[in-house]
Amino acid sequence: MPNSTRQLVIIGSGPAGLTAAVYAARANLYPLVIQGETPGGQLMGTTYIENWPGIKSILGPTLMMDMQEHAKHFGAELLDETVTKVDFSQKPFTLWTNRDTQIKAHAVIVATGAAPNKLKCPGEDTYWGKGVTTCAVCDGAFYPNKKVIVVGGGDTAMEDASFLKKFTKDITVVQISDKLTASYPLQQRILNDPDIKVIYNSTVSAIHGNKDHVTGVTISNQKTGETTDMDVDGVFIAIGLTPNTGIFKGQLELGKYGYLHTENQTHTSVRGVFAAGDVFDFRYKQAITAAGSGCKAALDAERYLKEIASK
What we know:
By secondary structure, the protein is α/β, with parallel strands linked by helices. It is built from 6 helices and 19 strands. Strand 7 and strand 8 form a beta hairpin. The chain is 23% helix and 28% strand. The longest helix has 23 residues.
């Protein structure tokens, strides 16, 4: 593959990247998908998904493996490497991987996603997907009448707490500072809800469980150092996401919070480079919206390639 030139290269293999691969492969673009450090993306770390249309319940890794097979069935090629450097300043574009592979491409779709910020406390990794999650919309329904906590004080945390009210009335928000940072209307919605408690100046310093699922947390007061153990069934972490855009600094325009800046849906600041999924979408952050944008990016890339081929 060294020094080969491809019609289309897709960077990333989550729902956005693989959906783009399906559409591009069916258009006979023979896309190359460079899978990255975590083939399959964030859903590889989830358990059951119950909001994917047409499938009542499916394990996250199973869905992603199905999507991989779908893309390969139509002719997409999957490369188990990670892009470490790009040059979008001249065409064809050039990409380098962690295995010293150099690839040239006439068009590129960036679908590198975003990584959820973590607490980095004991038990977090152990119970990830077993009571620890970053998506209330995805997992809230698994906690009917259960005791849950939401970690964070911004808009996402407030929205998560409000959403969880659909399933339980035992919700505690744990905020590291002495006040919430969400917009005023969202704050008021939470503060005026008798079913939602707020603990300030605190964070979750440890997560406990019975090997199968979360059973409790340790909450540490950041001012006094006092710790308190609390029985909980679910921990919803809402302290933000970090977009995987590091290698694109200086190559593509970045917008709010380091996400890729786009115009006209999927177009980045460089003509011929398109964005899909959580790498530019800091609002919805759902697998299905990521997949939808992957479809859009593939269609836009196909139109672009037809356009330059006709010149």
